[in-house]
């Protein structure tokens, strides 16, 4: 069974952390992953940096630009991850934009993912239909779970469609926005969380965008199976480095 | 074979809507409504009335006698430079502001490189009394001060794009991010035949007025609707799309697309996207774009700010791939020389973008009885400083 599916069966609420590969330093990728697992994080999204990250706010944009300046590439990321499964057992997901994967070759990319032990992918600009028609078979052949996003604006009909195509979890974007910490969640989020919870989808939901501390984590996981923190974590390592990761994780859990 | 858009939003293998889910409702709303709205008689009436009385259409199809003599062929210039605001860009912004109104939007965002599309957008927003926000790369803001001032005078807010390379592609990213953050009340007026479906098709349809006019004007002057050649410069490809639109599937008419070679196609400082680009995704569209082997989008270069976009519209990617259009890359130097030549021969100062199209006559020989129609997409006022610096005037 895929590590993501197994993790989703655990009774607890899940904390997933996003970080940008090759940031702050090119060699921080593996130590970041290890530190995150040791700190008690349940799942990791490894950000493959892209020059033009449309769905990201300033924090992740800046980390992506820096990571690319540091020399990060798809090939180097796979090289860095080649022994990761000798020491890390939690689910690992690559989050990146579609163009670098297209250039690598989608099949070759999926094959590499399987080889190094990646469990799933999040590709914000790969539409559900295109995935379903052109790439689903390749992903499944390599044991990869593809994760789709929904937002407060997504219609019930489309959510049901996305649920039918998904086989891991649904990434619930907390509000209409790019990535980045908001001040907190208001009534709009609560009613959105409730609406989705009441839909009784087959896939569990994990909330992302705007989760930055214990408060927002608790609010999000009241309704959902887990929550993902990205920008707030990237900001923390920018300021404190990868050795203080446990401090950040302790402040959330 | 049709070179037009398919039901699913593709030109051959190019196009589509490779967008994050956050943009899906906005783009889907537009996709479901744009053809319906454009077909409404009241829309057509308002669109054409504004093009006539506000923009100054139809623009002349001018027989350039001295230029024709020099190159020993029959050259007609489609005078888009005579439009209000000085370029073809306003055909699209008039169409899109009317679209935005019918969709009930009360806030407009746009991206701009040189500022031409930003000015054209600020203009129609002033005309309609709608809030206008224009994203412009920090570097371009510094390079294009007069257009920044124009936008401000027209009441627009100009927001510097500080991300990435701080030029047109990043301004486009920022506009898209704004749209993600404001999904309900905002319409994004994109400036060329680029971006996710239905933008390339919608913008092409608004620009199609150019070839519609060419057909009737040429019939009157030459007794035929069909020229032997159509020539247009290609940045994103909107003036070219408008020029080709009604001739796309008429293979008696040859199509020439002119890209900016910058310092030379192989110099590393170029914007010749079709030759240098590879298939990929940029701003939500599958097309040809300039990128590294790793799939990172690179910065193009051209002396012409309107042509240095790292991608090209999906219609043009398909015209290139199928061979329907001949693509010619023109260097800074050749474009500037041809621009100055038009000034001297015809008394017309062209935009540097359009000067690239004019330089084709130095690179390709036409027959004396060939009818060649060239889209003079804009006037050179905005480029005066460039011409001054280049020719030490
Ligand atoms: C006068 C003129 N021509 C051409 C272009 C290039 O755009 P497109 O290829 O969309 O026509 C521009 C863009 O700013 C322009 O100002």
From TrEMBL, chain A:
PROSITE patterns tied to this protein:
TRP_SYNTHASE_ALPHA
Catalyzed reaction equations: (1S,2R)-1-C-(indol-3-yl)glycerol 3-phosphate + L-serine = D-glyceraldehyde 3-phosphate + L-tryptophan + H2O
Among InterPro entries, the record links this protein to: Aldolase_TIM, RibuloseP-bd_barrel, Trp_synthase_alpha_AS, Trp_synthase_suA
Q: What class of enzyme is it?
A: lyase
Pathway assignment reads: Amino-acid biosynthesis; L-tryptophan biosynthesis; L-tryptophan from chorismate: step 5/5
**One Pfam family cited in the UniProt record for this chain:** Trp_syntA
Enzyme active site: 45 (proton acceptor), 56 (proton acceptor)
UniProt keyword annotations, A-Z: Amino-acid biosynthesis, Aromatic amino acid biosynthesis, Lyase, Tryptophan biosynthesis
The yes or no answer to whether the keyword Lyase is present is yes
Q: Does the keyword Repressor apply?
A: no
Q: What is its EC number?
A: 4.2.1.20
Do you know which SUPFAM superfamilies this protein is assigned to? Ribulose-phoshate binding barrel
Under the GO molecular function aspect, what terms does this record hold?
A: tryptophan synthase activity
The record describes its quaternary structure and partners as: Tetramer of two alpha and two beta chains.
Q: Which PANTHER family match?
A: TRYPTOPHAN SYNTHASE ALPHA CHAIN, CHLOROPLASTIC (PTHR43406:SF1), TRYPTOPHAN SYNTHASE, ALPHA CHAIN (PTHR43406)
Give the family, as the similarity comment puts it.
Answer: Belongs to the TrpA family.
Functionally, this protein is described as follows: The alpha subunit is responsible for the aldol cleavage of indoleglycerol phosphate to indole and glyceraldehyde 3-phosphate.
Q: What is this protein called?
A: Tryptophan synthase alpha chain
- Lineage per the UniProt record: Bacteria, Pseudomonadati, Bacteroidota, Flavobacteriia, Flavobacteriales
UniProtKB/TrEMBL annotation, chain B:
Indicate the segments annotated as coiled coil, or none if absent. Answer: none
Protein's pathway: Amino-acid biosynthesis; L-tryptophan biosynthesis; L-tryptophan from chorismate: step 5/5
Q: Report the GO molecular function annotations.
A: tryptophan synthase activity
Catalytic activity, as annotated = (1S,2R)-1-C-(indol-3-yl)glycerol 3-phosphate + L-serine = D-glyceraldehyde 3-phosphate + L-tryptophan + H2O
N6-(pyridoxal phosphate)lysine found at: 89
Keyword set for this entry?
Answer: Amino-acid biosynthesis, Aromatic amino acid biosynthesis, Lyase, Pyridoxal phosphate, Tryptophan biosynthesis
Q: What is its EC number?
A: 4.2.1.20
Q: Is Lipid metabolism set as a keyword in this record?
A: no
Residue ranges occupied by any Tryptophan synthase beta chain-like PALP domain in the UniProt entry: 56-378
Q: Which cofactor does it need?
A: pyridoxal 5'-phosphate
Similarity comment: family membership: Belongs to the TrpB family.
Please give the subunit comment from the record: Tetramer of two alpha and two beta chains.
Say what the protein does: The beta subunit is responsible for the synthesis of L-tryptophan from indole and L-serine.
Q: What is this protein called?
A: Tryptophan synthase beta chain
Gene this protein is translated from: trpB
């Amino acid at each position: 069974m895929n590590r993501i599916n197994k993790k989703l069966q655990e009774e607890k609420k899940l904390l997933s952390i996003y970080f940008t590969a090759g940031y702050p330093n090119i060699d921080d990728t593996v130590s970041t992953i290890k530190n995150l697992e040791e700190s008690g994080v349940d799942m990791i999204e490894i950000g493959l940096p892209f020059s033009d990250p449309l769905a990201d706010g300033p924090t992740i944009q800046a980390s992506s630009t820096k990571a690319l300046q540091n020399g990060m590439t798809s090939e180097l990321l796979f090289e860095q991850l080649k022994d990761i499964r000798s020491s890390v057992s939690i689910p690992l997901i690559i989050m990146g934009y579609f163009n670098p994967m297209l250039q690598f070759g989608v099949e070759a990319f999926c094959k590499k993912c399987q080889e190094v032990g990646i469990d799933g992918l999040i590709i914000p600009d790969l539409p559900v239909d295109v995935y379903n028609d052109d790439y689903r078979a390749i992903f499944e052949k390599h044991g990869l779970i593809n994760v789709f996003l929904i937002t407060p604006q997504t219609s019930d009909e489309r959510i049901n469609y996305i649920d039918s195509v998904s086989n891991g979890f649904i990434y619930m974007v907390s509000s209409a926005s790019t990535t980045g910490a908001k001040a907190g969640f208001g009534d709009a989020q609560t009613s959105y969380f409730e609406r989705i919870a009441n839909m009784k989808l087959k896939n569990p939901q994990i909330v992302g965008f705007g989760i930055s501390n214990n408060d927002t984590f608790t609010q999000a996981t009241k309704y959902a199976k887990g929550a993902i923190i990205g920008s707030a974590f990237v900001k923390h390592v920018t300021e404190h480095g990868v050795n203080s990761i446990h401090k950040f994780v302790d402040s959330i859990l | 074979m049709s070179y037009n858009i398919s039901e699913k939003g593709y030109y051959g293998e190019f196009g589509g809507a490779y967008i994050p889910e956050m943009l899906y409702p906005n783009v889907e709303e537009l996709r479901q409504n744009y053809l319906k709205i454009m077909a409404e008689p009241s829309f057509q009436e308002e669109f054409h009335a504004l093009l006539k009385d506000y923009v100054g259409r139809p623009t002349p199809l001018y027989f350039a006698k001295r230029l024709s003599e020099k190159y020993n062929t029959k050259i007609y210039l489609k005078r888009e430079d005579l439009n209000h605001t000085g370029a073809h860009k306003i055909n699209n912004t008039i169409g899109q502001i009317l679209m935005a109104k019918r969709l009930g939007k009360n806030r407009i965002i746009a991206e701009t490189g040189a500022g031409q599309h930003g000015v054209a957008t600020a203009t129609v927003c002033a005309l309609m009394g709608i809030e206008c926000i224009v994203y412009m790369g920090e570097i371009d803001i510094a390079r294009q001060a007069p257009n920044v001032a124009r936008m401000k005078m027209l009441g627009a807010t100009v927001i510097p794009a500080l991300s990435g390379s701080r030029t047109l592609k990043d301004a486009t990213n920022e506009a898209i991010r704004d749209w993600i953050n404001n999904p309900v009340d905002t319409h994004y007026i994109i400036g060329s035949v680029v971006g996710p479906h239905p933008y390339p098709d919608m913008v092409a349809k608004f620009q199609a007025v150019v070839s519609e006019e060419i057909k009737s004007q040429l019939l009157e002057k030459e007794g035929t609707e069909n020229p032997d050649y159509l020539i247009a410069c290609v940045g994103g490809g909107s003036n070219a799309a408008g020029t080709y639109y009604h001739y796309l599937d008429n293979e008696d008419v040859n199509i020439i697309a002119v890209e900016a070679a910058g310092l030379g196609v192989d110099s590393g400082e170029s914007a010749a996207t079709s030759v240098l680009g590879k298939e990929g995704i940029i701003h939500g569209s599958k097309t040809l774009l300039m990128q590294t082997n790793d799939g990172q989008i690179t910065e193009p270069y051209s002396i012409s700010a309107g042509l240095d976009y790292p991608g090209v519209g999906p219609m043009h990617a398909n015209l290139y791939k199928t061979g329907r259009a001949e693509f010619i890359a023109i260097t800074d130097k050749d474009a500037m020389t041809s621009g100055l030549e038009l000034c001297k021969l015809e008394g017309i100062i062209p935009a540097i973008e359009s000067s690239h199209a004019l330089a084709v006559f130095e690179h390709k020989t036409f027959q004396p009885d060939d009818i060649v129609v060239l889209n003079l997409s804009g006037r050179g006022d905005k480029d005066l400083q460039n011409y001054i610096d280049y020719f030490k005037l």
